[in-house]
Amino acid sequence: IYCSAIRYGPGAPPWDAFSMVTMTYEDRPDVLDDYRSGFLMRTGKRLKQIDIALQGDLPTGHLIGDINSDGINEALIRRYVLAYETHPHWSLLSKVTIFGADGVSSLPPAEFEYGVRDQPRVVSAANAVIGTKSEPLKVMDNDFVDLIDINADALPDILRTELGGQHLAYLNQGVRTEGGRDYIQWGPPQNVDSSDNGDLALVRNLNEAEVSLTDVDGDGLADLVLNSSINPRYFKNNGDVSWGSTKIIEIKDGEDFPPAPYSDPAAQTVDLNFDKNIDIIRPISGGYQVWYSLGPRRSDSPNTHRYSPKILTPGASHDGAVLRFADELGNAIPGMTLADLNGDRVTDVARIRPTSVVFAPSMGYGNYADSIVMQIPPDNGFGHDEGFAALTPNGLLNAELIDITGNGLADLVVRGEGFRELWYWINLGNCTFDQRRIVTQLPTAFSNPNPEIRWADLNGNGTDDLVYSDSELEPGQKLRTIDLGLLINGDPCPFLMNAIDNGIGGRTEIEYLPTTKYAISDLLSGNPWSMGLPHVSIVVNRITQKDGLGRSFETEFEYHDGYYDGVEKEFRGFSRSERQEIGDDSQPTLITEFHFDVGNRNEALKGKTLRTLYKTESGEVFSESEDFWNVRNLFAARPSPDDLLAPNGVDFPFVERSVGILHEEPSGATQPIRLEREYSYDDYGNRVMAADYGQVQDDDRNFGNDERVHWFVYNATPESSIWNLEVETFTTDNSQPARLVTHNRIYYDEPSFIGLDLG
Description:
The protein has 759 residues and is an all-beta fold. The protein has 5 domains: 103 residues; 198 residues, no CATH class; 172 residues, no CATH class; 175 residues, no CATH class; 81 residues, no CATH class. The chain has a 21-stranded antiparallel sheet that branches. The protein is globular, with a radius of gyration of 31 Å. The mean pLDDT is 92.
C-alpha cells in the first residue's frame, strides 16, 4: 500500500476548489521483503515524483493538466522529481529537483553522495592484512582459547581457561598504525574475577564439550554456559572482566529441558520472536521443537533464567521435507545454517547446495514461509580462472552465509575453491545473487595446512573480519586479520550519506567513525567507559560545510561513555559528548560539552540533558548550565506485571531547578555569576510556577533584587470545553510575604461570542 494523494481544502469535503499532493512511484530493483509481522510485506516501489496542485479556480501562468488522473484539470503549483543514480541496483536517493508552476523552470538540484562503489571482480588482500602485537602465546586454534567481549566495548577479547582454576583475559585495545601498517594491540593478561559465584566458573574450561560461550540473556555479551542435561546453568558476563553469580536455567511449567545447542548439531540458537532473547530450536521429522527464552520476570529468582515449555511448530521445509541441521545419526548436514537472507533482521533457515542456496524466510515464532531457491550464477572465469559451474564438496564444506558488505544481507562466501582465494556472491536482496567476485592473495605460511578461521569484528568497525589463528607462529603472526568489508567496499561506512550539494555552491560533507574508536581513545587516555556498549554503532565524526567561495567550516564530534540497556535491549546513546566548532582567524574554536542521563537509574530520564558547558579550545569554561530533574509517578500498576519489559506505570519527568554560571573571564580572575530558576508542575504536565531568581550569591536568592516568580492557574473543570487551559497568572517578587507585581486573567468566549467568562 502506497499513499498516492493527499487532498485538503476549506471546511469539510466535498470542495469546489481544493489543493492536493500527488505521489508517483516507480519499480525499485532492490525489492524489500519483510516477514516480521508474521506475513510478507513487500516494498517494491520507490517514490519518483511529488506534485503539488490546485483543482477548481485555476490561476493563469501555471501548467494545466489532469495531474491526478481523475478526469479534471489541475494547476501545478510545484513539482519535486527524485532520481536514484548512485548505484545500478541499490535505491539510494541521488538528486532532488524542484520545478516551478510552469513545470519547466527549475532550481538547481540538491544532490546526495554515499560511501558506495561498484565492487571489483577481483581484489588482492596482499596489503590488507592487519597484524597484531602482544597477543597471547595461545590463540583460537587452541581448544582452551576463544574470542569473547569480556569488557563490553564491542571489541572481541581473548579468553584463555587452561591455567588450572584461572581464567585470563587479553583485552583488545583496538587498531594502531605503525610504519603505514595497521595492527591490533592486545593488553596484558588480566584475571577474570569470579568472586560472585565463589570461583565456580574458574574450574570450567573451554575445551569441555558441555562448556560454551553464548549470550543467554540477550544483553549483547556472551556468557559462560554449562550445558548439563541435568542441571544447566550459566555464569553471567558482567562486562567488566568478571563472571557473575550462577544462574540456573529452568523450564516454566515443564520438565523437558532444551537441548544443549552448543554441542548438539541438531539444535540451534536463534531469536525466533524478535525480542532479542536467544531461543532454541531442534528440527525433527514433523517440524521444529521450540523453547522460547522468557526473559526477565519479577516472579523469578534473580539467579534463574527460564525457558518456555517445548512447543512444536511446522518449521522450515523444502520440497515437503523439514530442513534439519543434523541427520538421524546426529551428524551435521553440510551447508545447513542460519542467516538473514532477505534483510528483515529475522534469521532464516538456509541450506547451501552446489548450485543454489535454499532458504525459508522466518515469519517468527518458529513459522516459516515457503522456501525460496537462490541460484548461484555460473561464469566463464572472466579471464581469471576456468570459471564456476558448481561448488565442489570441499567448497561446500567451507561455504558460509556472512554479511561481508555491511548492508544487512547475508552474502555467500566460499573458501578453499582457489589457492589463497575467497569467492563471494553479493546478496542483492531480491532473492538473487550477483556475479562471482574473488579476493586473492590471502595469508599463507601456516604451521597447519588448515588453520583455524573465525569471523569476528576484530577491528571494531561494524563488519565481520576474516581472522586466521596459528599459535605456532612467531609473535605478531599468530593472528592475521582481513577486513573484507573495507577491502571490497573501499569505505569503512558503506551506504551512509557522506555529502550533500545544495546546487547553489553550498556543500556539506559528513564523516563517520565507529563507537569503538572513541572507547579506545578514552581507554588510552585513562578514562575507560563506565557503562557497557557491546554493539558497534556508526556515529557522525565530522561535518564540513563549504560555501563555494573557498571557505569551509568544520564541526567535529566526540562521544564518551556509551550505554546499552541489556534488559530493554536498547541503545541509549552517550552520557557525554562534545561538539567542537573549529575556529579560524576571525573567530576562536568553540567547544560545547553535553552531559546526558541515559536512563540507567530511572528510565523516564533517558535522553534528558543534564549539563551543558561552553569552553575554549584550551578547556577554559566561560558558560555552563545544569538542569536538575525530578520524576513524579502519576500511576503505578497494581500488582506490577510479571514481565519486566511490560509498562508498570506512568512517570512524568520534569526540570525542578536549573542553574546557569557565567564566567566573564574564563581564566577565573573574576567571580563567576550564578543564575538560578525553579519550576513546579501539576499532574497534567502544566507548569504552575516558574521562579526566576536572577543572580544568586552563595545561598541568597534575593541577591540583586531582580527576582520574579510567575504563578499559573488552569481551569480544572473536566466537563468544561476549555478544561486544562490557562485562566489566570500572577507575578510576584520573592519577598516574605510576596508582593504582587502583575495579575492577568484570561477569558474564553463560547461559540455565540457573548463574552461570558468560562474560566
